[in-house]
TrEMBL record:
Keywords: DNA-binding, Isomerase, Repressor, Transcription, Transcription regulation. InterPro entries: HTH_LacI, LacI/GalR-like_sensor, Lambda_DNA-bd_dom_sf, Peripla_BP_I. This is Transcriptional regulator, LacI family. It comes from Halothermothrix orenii (strain H 168 / OCM 544 / DSM 9562). The lineage of its organism: Bacteria, Bacillati, Bacillota, Clostridia, Halanaerobiales. Its EC number is 5.1.1.1.
Length: 335
């Protein structure tokens, strides 16, 4: 019969819990006891079984990740940061994609809870606050990433989207643009609302009039960038600059501009947000606000796993990361 954790505990004359703590490299076991247990493990040829260890510790050593759109290159970079940090702690990741749909968010939460994940990192729409509370009632730790549900008192890793959008819009203003449009993100998200407010703040501070027809709601997809840019280009008073709430929509907007036989930035300057890899591959290269996507993922995984493992650190915290303006060829002065 295969050696079990109980066999090791019996021979070492310690509890099963003590053996488990050694197997999981926990700090509160004396070096003497730890050496004794490791010696017995080697002698008996014990090979730890992940399922068995999970039953002993009431853990699965998996975490869930709920993201809105796997097609958006922003989220795979975030997910890579989460997965790399999770591996350092000996955890695996289960991914769920919701296509920005509230009902799919609920289904993803249900799936992960049924899988008995040890914690969940998630990016939800604002009107799904109940899902956060439901997860917490199940005793499952939570970290919000990228999109924060307002007044939800759970750890969060994000950026200051208002300031980031303000800086993006200010870049166009500093180039001399006074007619500046904005294709927003999904306004059911805090991210979308904050970027809209950042755009408005920059315009108001400089005393620049905002025409309501210049603000059009998108959904972060390339298709909505294309469709909404077509609408803007058909306006009687066409803007000379545009801040688009993410790079994927900006790339869709490029297609609309070129189909209209216009040039970037000579006829219209475009600035995006996120700095996905495609931003530097289009022609002209896209000016954008760079987010630390990979670092966001690593921070989120660290916060979650520390809470799962009962770290003494204060995990009820918000980590706010900075963005950086990356100036490329898609923005220029007013001709």
């Amino acid at each position: 019969m295969p050696v079990t954790i109980k066999d090791i505990a019996k021979k070492a004359n310690v509890s099963v819990t003590t053996v488990s703590r050694v197997l999981n490299n926990k700090p509160d076991v004396s070096e003497k006891t730890k050496s004794k247990i490791l010696k017995i493990i080697n002698e008996l040829g014990y090979n730890p079984n992940g399922v068995a260890r999970g039953l002993v510790l009431n853990r699965t050593h998996t975490i869930g990740l709920i993201i809105p759109d796997i097609r958006n290159p922003f989220f795979p970079e975030v997910a890579r940061g989460i997965e790399d940090k999770a591996k350092e702690y000996g955890y695996s990741v289960i991914y769920c994609n919701t296509d920005n749909k509230k009902e799919e968010e609920k289904k993803a939460v249900e799936l992960l809870l049924n899988k008995r994940v040890d914690g969940i990192i998630l990016s939800l729409s604002m009107n799904n606050r109940d899902e956060l509370d439901r997860i917490k009632k199940q005793g499952c730790p939570i970290v919000q990433i990228d999109r924060k549900v307002p007044d939800a008192n759970y750890p969060t890793v994000t950026i200051d989207n208002l300031i980031s959008a303000y800086n993006a819009t200010k870049h166009l203003i500093n180039l001399g643009h006074k007619y500046i449009a904005h294709i927003t993100g999904n306004l059911d998200t805090k991210t979308g609302q904050d970027r809209l407010n950042g755009y408005k703040k920059a315009m108001h501070e400089r005393g620049i009039h905002i025409s309501q027809e210049w603000i059009i709601e998108g959904d972060y997809s390339k298709e909505s960038g294309y469709k909404n840019m077509k609408r803007i280009l058909n306006l009687k008073n066409r803007p000379t600059g545009i801040f688009i709430a993410n790079d994927l929509m900006a790339i869709g907007a490029y297609k609309a501009v070129f189909e209209s036989k216009l040039n970037i930035p000579e006829d219209i300057s475009i600035i995006g947000h996120d700095d996905i890899e495609l931003a530097s591959l289009v022609n002209p290269e896209l000016t954008t606000m760079a987010q630390p996507k990979y670092e966001m993922g690593k921070h989120a995984a660290r916060l979650l796993i520390q809470e799962i493992e009962g770290s003494d650190q204060d995990n009820n915290q918000n980590i706010l990361l900075n963005t950086e303006l990356v100036v490329r060829g898609s923005t220029g002065g007013v001709g």
